[in-house]
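Two records follow; treat each independently.
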Amino acid sequence: MSDQKREAWKVFQIMAEFVEGFEQLSHVRPAVSVYGSARLKEDHPDYLRAEAISLALSNAGFSVISGGGPGIMEAANKGAFSGSSTSVGLNIQLPHEQLANPYQDLSLNFRHFFARKVMFVKYATAYVVLPGGFGTLDELAEILTLIQTGKSRKIPIILVNEVFWSGLIDWFSNTLVEAGTIKKDDLKLFQVCETPDEVLTAIFDFYEQRGFEPSAEEEEVLLEL
């Protein structure tokens, strides 16, 4: 098959990933996307913290969406799986690291990072970001950029573990703000929490004056992701 024909068929494969994601995930709202390192073991404090937060979210009525793999992703699915709401894994095919964890009520598989990333954003009521590496930073930068530029609706972005994130936050404040590459108000796009109760309070406080479902205007914005 020629390269041109392969590219044409690839378009249909990409479309199929979007269609399946839209069909499956439209039923899991309200949902919280949880991120963190794939490399942390089940006895690590951040693994245990992610599990506890996800259990609390699930019992509070939120589906929990993770990347479906090991580490913090597993902890998020494990906590949600033990709770009363849906545990969702958005699995990705990778040369290494990504093996699907067994704690998924709903499991989707993606070949393409960009299709998977849309699913994380489109159906999220909040983002909870635990310590992680490049992938976690990528997802954090993605949602900050989308909200900052108005390409996605505003939702709570919650960083967990202040000690881990303090250096990055200081760099945002002391370097990016000072250099004029972001505004000081952009620092209000996220907040830091430590415990499951703090995470739940941050989310419920944000939505206190409105429902969890996107407004008609926000739905239009989400269509243009």
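The next record belongs to a different protein.
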Amino acid sequence: MASNINANNIDGTFPIAGQDNDSQGFRDNFTNVKTNFSNAKTEIEDLQGKAILKSALTGTSLDNSGGGALISDFELRDMSETRVAKGSSSGTVTLNYTEGSYVTATTSGSISLAFSNFPASGKLGRIRLELDVQNVAHTLTLPSAVSIGIATLMGINSNTRVVSFDEVGTYILEFTTDDQGTTVAVSDLTRNRSMVEQRTPVNIGQSGDKAGLMVVDTSYVYVCTGAYDGSTVIWKRAAVSAY
């Protein structure tokens, strides 16, 4: 916007020294100075309420929320994202998009995932979950909105939407949506999406595996024959040399 401050409406040559001066000239200058001060105050307060700042102005707290305004044609360098540490967790764990786009959690039991505050429809929201699984008995249940890519997840039980983990360790899942969370896509960033993995299978925690899943180690090829029921061995194996 153009400034309303008018530096040209002040007569800098008035009053003229050594002669009588009309008092109207004083009144005109004073009025114009006051008007310019009022315009300056309005414009400064407008900037204070709208500008993006490096640090808080004196007497205020920093708030650089853009309110959904578009930022375009910028080159980004040395940028970071907010990490939200959930700590030791079990039960329902909610990923709140407005808190940060990278969430970490350590399982102390099985977890049921939930989402909140994704961007409005027509805008992409992306959030990552770094899950430190402490026990293969700990599972991750995905909400019904997660419907894209779910069938490709390792250890998924499509009927219950429960993800099982055959090894303790850290797993990273990425969730994206462009319709405010009505439909969410999932991608496993740490485990192979292929039906063949390099690992040795165990029965415990394999209830989510599907028949036909294949894994290999240095000695055998394993084929999953069904869901583990707590007692029945679900893997058949053949020596790698036989292939």
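Discussion point: The first helix runs from residue 23 to 50. How would you locate this feature using only the token line?
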